[in-house]
Amino acid sequence: SFLPASCSLSALTICVSVNLVLFIFGNLKLLTVRLILNCPVFRGTYNFIYGDAATHDFGVYDTFIISDVLHYLQPGEQEALLKKCIGNLAPGGSIIVRDGDADLTQRQKGTALTEFFSTKAIGFNKTSGLPLSFISSTQMRAIAARYGAVVEQIDNTKYTSNVIFIIKKPAHE
After folding, report:
1. Which of 11, 16, 105, 161 could cross-link to 21 by cystine, CB 3.0-4.6 Å?
2. In whole angstroms, what is the distance from residue 147 CA to residue 169 CA?
3. How many alpha carbons fall within 13 Å on the CB side of residue 95?
């Protein structure tokens, strides 16, 4: 398992114990936070932080979840965020990243299509005006290695390049 034993996920897989994780949401973060905070099941159990992941000053956590966020950042910003998370990751902790893998070039077309609908056609996700930048698994592994971590990859999709990267920090440094 890539989460600590003391960590419990909800059925929606978006809520983790406050002592274990800082959530980094994409462009729907305010809506997501309001929905969760108004749900009686979660009231008082979880702590959600709303802010810009690139500039937010956060402490040490066992787990970070970065879901559908990195491609909205430019390559230098992607590395800076991953470096910050790895640097603030407790020994033995994990960073769970879900994003498109640019190395999967054929399936990347499916991901690009879904992003076209979410950012242009329907427009429920907003961009900074700069083009989307999908990280590759090659880049992800290089960044993790540069900062003393390793990467596992889970690929369960058929038509898109969306994968899950599990970045782990050794238990003892």
Report:
1. 16
2. 9
3. 29
Q: Show Cβ contacts of residue 58 under 8 Å, excluding neighbours closer than 6 positions.
A: 22, 49, 88
Model pTM score: 0.75
The residues with which 155 forms a beta bridge, in sequence order, are: none
Q: What confidence category does residue 93 fall into, taking pLDDT thresholds of 50, 70 and 90?
A: confident
DSSP 119: I
The pair of three-digit structure tokens given for residue 151, joined into one six-digit string: 């990467």
Which tokens belong to 170? Answer: 């050794």
Beta bridge partner(s), residue 94: 63, 168
Q: What is the pLDDT of residues 134-169, one digit of tens each?
A: 999 999 999 999 999 999 999 998 988 999 999 998
The answer to whether 62 and 86 are in contact (CB under 8 A) is no
pLDDT of residue 53: 74
Beta-bridged to residue 38, according to DSSP, are none
